[in-house]
Amino acid sequence: MAEGTLTTAVRLARHVDRLEAEHPPIDLESVDWTVGRPVEFEARFGHVLDYMARVELEVDRNVLELMTMLPDPPEIDRRFYADVWQPQETRHGLILDRLQVELGREPADADLSSIGSKLKILGALGRWPAFQDVSRMIYYLTGMATERSAVLAYNLLHDGVIEMREGAMAETIIAPIKRQEPGHYAFYQLSARGLWAELAGWQKWLVRKLRTLSFAPVGANNDRQKADFGELMETLGITADLDDFARQISRVETELLWAQKRGLKVPPYVVAAFREAVQHAEARRAAASA
Ligand SMILES: [Fe+2]
Ligand SMILES: [Fe+2]
């Protein structure tokens, strides 16, 4: 094993050990459900809670997708998603979903079980190890973009919650959740850097192709969900600074995949996907007011 590989493996193992020891799933008993101005809060951020709750709960489906797409994952990946990621994220989802129900909303409509045919094809191809590495690279890139989006979105939501003087919620819900996201991002970043260095030219070419064709904002799998994400962007103030948000969530992806395109700040498919979400939200708003 090359020294670089060994270092990545050791660093990943230590990282997962640390996350497991220092970040148990948030204790439901620690949550203070007090909301000072529930009507105002729901009107402004209710739909944001719903989107985040759904995406966090759908981690159960993401794990099924992973097992389909990567039939033979490295042990460290399996440990991360089974012992750290899934328990933490599903708890985030439960808490946010209960919060929105406390505010009088319907619980999130999370899809916990359907697996698309594209993933089944990737899974079948994944029996060939060289191809499984391509799928694994896509998984790490998706993980990085998703977790970085989560960190930024929770920071913005936290600002809004503080601005509305909902101290209990900020302190016992949003802050504890947002503290757990950077550890997930770090796992994917370490994994992505390690694997990218090992891929052959054709594998890198295929990763670029697949990523260009399939990039989507987290949880935005159909037109309605794209519009929902566009609304979330609007409420959190991301739309106004869309290029910067896109740049931040794809910083390492740009560095690894597009190093040959000197000066490229952000892959065009990332910006296009966020713009599309904004357009879906605008179209739905226009239709509703017509
Ligand atoms: Fe989360
Ligand atoms: Fe996360």
UniProtKB/TrEMBL annotation:
- Give this protein's Gene Ontology molecular function annotations: oxidoreductase activity
Q: Which InterPro entries match?
A: Ferritin-like_SF (IPR009078), RNR-like (IPR012348)
Mind telling me what this protein is named? GTP-binding protein LepA
> Lineage, please?
Bacteria, Bacillati, Actinomycetota, Actinomycetes, Propionibacteriales
